[in-house]
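With this grant's support, we have settled on a layout for protein records. A representative record follows, to show the layout.
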Amino acid sequence: MSAGRFRLMILRLGVAVSLSIAPVARPAEPGCSQKLVDGTTPPLTWFYIDPRQALMPFYQWENNDGYCGEVSMMEAGLNNGQWMSQYNARLICGTGLSQSGPDGACATHYGQVNFNAQLLIENPGTGVSGPNTYADAAQCLANSRLSATTYDYSAELPGMAGFEQYMSWVKQQVISGHQVTMAILIKGGSDAQYDHEVAVMKIGTNHSPTDPTYYPDDVLYFDDHGAYTLRGSGPGGYPSIPPGAGSDTTGCTPYVYGYTFASLANTRSGANQWDAQAYSIIIPGDRTIQTYTGGSGYSTVPITGPHNYGFSVAGPEDPSHETVPVALTIMGPTETNGVPNPIDPIAGYDYENPKIGENLIGNGCTNEQPEAMTNVTLRATVSGLTPGVSYNLYEYDFSSITGTGSGAALAVPVDNFNANAGLATAVTTFTATGATFTQSVTTTSDKIVVFRAVPADGP
């Protein structure tokens, strides 16, 4: 769901300096004049818990009421050797709902976006959604060939016990090195359960960094995908290039937010109070509420709740553990219509220009893929190597996604990678001279590129 539907009073964040090895994004571009987010700085902690791969913020498209779930999955994909655009990250879900609903939905419904086309976190058929098809994270992730789990909200307790249960799950997943996406409330939002999906960057703690127990003073840091774009002293539009990048010195994109666990717990009405902080997480319950997910696409349906939702990506789909880690970095500068896209001080080249659609404030409706960026250089870094051992680095390229359900899945093997070498577009065989190996490929943003690396003597 999107942050773009709401007009919000926005403040700026200051992020504590990390004591961990992994790099941490700065809080905002130079020149931002806003105060610290919610008037406070997240407290310093003795330890930081980082996922296996450091997460780089990515600036989301806001038309069609947002691509926050898609960007969250894309970030997990980049950290596991995969690139796909936000457009393809929606099509990979296999719903047949296109970008904003069935073909012709924009015209038929006077430009109203179908919420069900967005990548949502609830699992269908579990009593937390209506009867209609929607893009659920479990299917999207499976079709992307990522090994992932979703939070088991069916066992969630009501009240603060359930909130603590959820935050402990998030903490355990990060301790395990996984990349976690969470559902959160936005001040000014409307859905009874969540308005936005964010990617966890790290957790600060004053307790053992291997202890998944909920502690009120633990600090959650997350990337909101640039959902709050600032110009002057208030929220601005949602242009293709992030405010603050290049010659644009009139705005900024904070990206990184940090809150103590205890301060995040809230109700829907409490999250919308005038003095509430920008982001909150729902306290679960067992009453009748209204949610958009699985409704007509344009109206709500009654369910029992609210619940918390999340998904965790452990790596590529590889049940036999044949692969070694591969992470992708967009090196840039990318180009649009032959013009280089400027670097963003926080996200680097992690944004897609042009945006999808024509609307700057996030409520446009379109089923059309925008023009692709060119000169997208992806650096693949293979890690966890043993010097002297030979490896095969497989590259799989796709120009489009078709099909529904599991028929939309990428034709990437999940085991016996060497035996299935014929599925790859290219293969590089190398003998490791150190713990890492790098290779680059240049493509266009509308293409899908997937890398897998395995020992050359593997199955």
Notes: The first strand starts at residue 47 and ends at 49. The CA atoms of residues 47 and 205 lie 5 Å apart.
